[in-house]
């Protein structure tokens, strides 16, 4: 009896352990960050484009690039839904799904650094998030310093899609990656971050390098593309590492640097 009374006296002062929040991520880069910060066990849903690490593809897909699947989200009952601007502003979400909706814009490396801090707080590991953000910031500064010290920057055109031709312009993530890898974007004078162009326009630019990251379509040196030497074309690099502002982006930049040396 004394033990029971003692337990009853102690219980009110014992902290209640909070259950891990259930998180749905509809952005591939955010999904990678969650796993990078050891929050993978909290993920209960993903977008169809979230594919890294490979094991998260076992999770149910509750959205794609066009939006989300309302029925699946309702059944999942997540605590947090992390998505881009387009999805978060969809009025059906807040009307039907009871969750905390968080918009995490993540288009640039700077966005990635900010996202580490935001997601660290959501996962209840702010120290880890802040620490990784500081490490990423230092890596970015080091790459900027190295690029600034480079006396000559070869020019490059980054091919995002081949038909019609889609090119990376100024302010885009590929533009940043090129600059940090020691290249100058030959399309730097175009106004748009991504734009369609003709083959005639491309031929007039005469870049030192062509960077080919057309997802699912390997580069073939024939027809129009036969005019570019093999050593001018950088292809075969991991599309997602280079074009996804997440934990692997610095590996992608280093891979591009290494490819330039070959």
What are the defining features of this structure?
Rossmann fold, six-stranded mixed sheet, alpha/beta, 11 helices, 2 domains, 262 residues
Short overview:
The chain has 262 residues and is of the alpha/beta class. 40% of the residues lie in helices and 17% in strands.
Taking all residues together, what is the mean pLDDT? 88
Point out poorly predicted stretches.
Answer: 1-17
* Count of extended strands: 12
Q: For the record, give the distance between the C-alpha atoms at the N and C termini, rounded to a whole number.
A: 79 Å
CATH architectural name of the largest domain: 3-Layer(aba) Sandwich
Give the CATH H-level superfamily of the largest domain: Nitrogenase molybdenum iron protein domain
Number of helices: 11
CATH classification, class level of the largest domain: Alpha Beta
What is the ordering of alpha helices and beta strands? HEHEEEHEHHEHHEEHEEHEEHH
Q: Give me the side-by-side strand order of the main sheet.
A: 4-3-2-1-5-6
CATH topology category name of the largest domain:
Rossmann fold
Largest sheet: 6 strands, mixed
The structural class is alpha/beta
Amount of helix: 40-55%
| Percentage beta strand | 15-25%
Structural account:
This protein is of the alpha/beta class. It folds into two domains: 23-106, Rossmann fold, CATH 3.40.50; 145-261, Rossmann fold. The protein is built from eleven helices and twelve strands. It has a six-stranded mixed β-sheet. Strands 7, 8, 9, 10, 11 and 12 form a six-stranded mixed β-sheet that branches. A hairpin with a 2-residue loop joins strand 7 and strand 8. The radius of gyration is 23 Å and the shape is globular. Residues 1-17 have low confidence and may be disordered.
């Amino acid at each position: 009896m004394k033990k029971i009374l003692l337990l009853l006296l102690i219980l009110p002062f014992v902290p209640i352990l909070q259950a891990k929040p259930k998180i749905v991520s509809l952005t591939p880069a955010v999904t990678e960050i969650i796993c990078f910060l050891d929050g993978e066990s909290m993920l209960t849903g993903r977008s169809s484009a979230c594919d890294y690490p490979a094991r998260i593809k076992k999770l149910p897909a509750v959205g794609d690039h066009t939006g989300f699947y309302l029925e699946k989200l309702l059944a999942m009952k997540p605590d947090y839904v992390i998505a881009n601007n387009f999805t978060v502003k969809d009025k059906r979400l807040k009307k039907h799904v009871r969750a905390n909706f968080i918009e995490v814009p993540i288009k640039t490396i700077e966005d990635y650094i900010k996202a580490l801090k935001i997601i660290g707080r959501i996962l209840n590991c702010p120290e880890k998030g802040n620490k990784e953000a500081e490490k990423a910031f230092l890596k970015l500064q080091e790459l900027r310093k190295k690029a600034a010290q480079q006396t000559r920057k070869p020019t490059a055109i980054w091919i995002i899609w081949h038909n019609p031709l889609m090119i990376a312009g100024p302010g885009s993530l590929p533009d940043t990656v090129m600059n940090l890898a020691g290249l100058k974007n030959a399309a730097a004078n175009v106004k748009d971050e991504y734009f369609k162009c003709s083959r005639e326009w491309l031929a007039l630019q005469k870049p030192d390098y062509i960077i080919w990251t057309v997802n699912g379509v390997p580069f073939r040196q024939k027809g129009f593309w036969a005019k570019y030497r093999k050593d001018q074309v950088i292809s075969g690099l991991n599309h997602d590492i280079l074009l996804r502002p997440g934990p692997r982006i610095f590996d992608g930049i280093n891979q591009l640097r290494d490819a330039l040396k070959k």
